[in-house]
Specification:
Layout lengths: L1 H5 L4 H16 L6 H8 L3 H13 L3 E3 L6 E3 L2 H12 L2 H16 L2 E8 L2 E8 L5 H5 L5 E2 L5 H7 L4 H10 L13 H14 L2 E4 L6 E9 L5 E10 L5 H22 L15
Antiparallel strand pairs: 1-2, 3-4, 3-8, 4-5, 6-7, 7-8
Helix pairs in contact: 6-11
């Protein structure tokens, strides 16, 4: 085991080792020892000890000719193992369930596939669980849903033109966005405020609020949405109840996906 070879590390030791990995990962070329020391701010002897531990475990190597250090493909292999066992649904299900219970509303986890929304997970109150599970795997239009608008923020103008040409902007209610100009304006609003709304645009009497989930590249990988009746999801409810909790959950899922920002701490109200 790694801990047996380098000694039982303190929290600070673990932090320093991870800093070494991050610094080496960011460098496009093998690094000199003095440059590594300057980046992490640790004594040379300590830095060498941690580098040797990484080499011993197969996560780094030292070039024989230049003496510089770099990461091995072992780090990539580690990442692939994590990705293989941590699907988006598996790493977010506990948070989605918690969000559904706290709000008492329906929750959907959505990805984009072939220019449509695809529901990969849905939760609702126990009495309607059977109904919500029927939505998993179903598709919905990008332009008429809050999750779809979140996913569309990653579209270039050319990609948006292709969507309109191939899928169209079909009206589902009299509130559906049906022109490119209106859609572009809506997406600018979504980007600016950090969330998206579906004001009965896909289904009459239903409103949805969605927030983005980011991956390790910083791109929107999915969306998480809260849905319910327009009577239940009022403007005040969105601002005071839904958004604080929804955005906190979205940040936590993003963090689990490898996003670089840490989720903000949230005060849990006392019962």
């Amino acid at each position: 085991m790694p801990n047996e070879r380098i000694g039982r590390p303190s929290n600070q030791s673990v932090t320093k080792i991870l800093q070494l990995v991050e610094i080496l990962a960011e460098s496009k070329v093998p690094m000199r020892l003095q440059d590594i020391i300057g980046s992490v701010g640790m004594p040379q002897a300590t830095c060498l000890r941690y580098l040797n531990a990484l080499i011993l475990e197969g996560y780094a190597y030292q070039d024989r000719d230049s003496g510089r250090y770099a990461l091995t493909w072992g780090v990539c292999n580690l990442g692939e193992k994590v990705r293989a066992h941590q699907s988006l649904r598996s790493i977010s299900s506990d948070l989605i369930n918690e969000l559904s219970i706290e709000l008492g509303l329906g929750i959907c986890l959505v990805i984009e596939h072939e220019m449509e929304c695809v529901y990969v997970d849905c939760w609702y109150e126990p009495a309607s669980m059977g109904v919500s599970l029927m939505r998993i795997g179903k598709q919905s239009p990008l332009h008429a849903t809050s999750s779809g608008k979140i996913l569309l923020t990653e579209y270039t103008d050319a990609a948006l033109d292709r969507l309109i040409a191939e899928k169209g902007l079909a009206p589902f209610t009299d509130k559906t966005i049906t022109t490119k100009r209106a859609l572009v304006e809506e997406l600018e609003t979504v980007k600016r405020q950090g969330y998206a709304l579906d004001n009965e645009e896909c289904e009459e009497g239903m409103r949805c609020v969605a927030a983005p989930i980011y991956d390790f590249t910083g791109k929107v990988a999915a969306a998480i949405s809260v849905f319910g009746s327009s009577e239940r999801i009022t403007d005040a409810c969105i601002q005071e109840e839904i958004l604080p909790t929804l955005q906190w959950v979205a940040q936590n899922i993003s963090f689990r996906m490898g996003s670089t920002f840490a989720p903000q701490k949230r005060e849990i109200p006392e019962n």
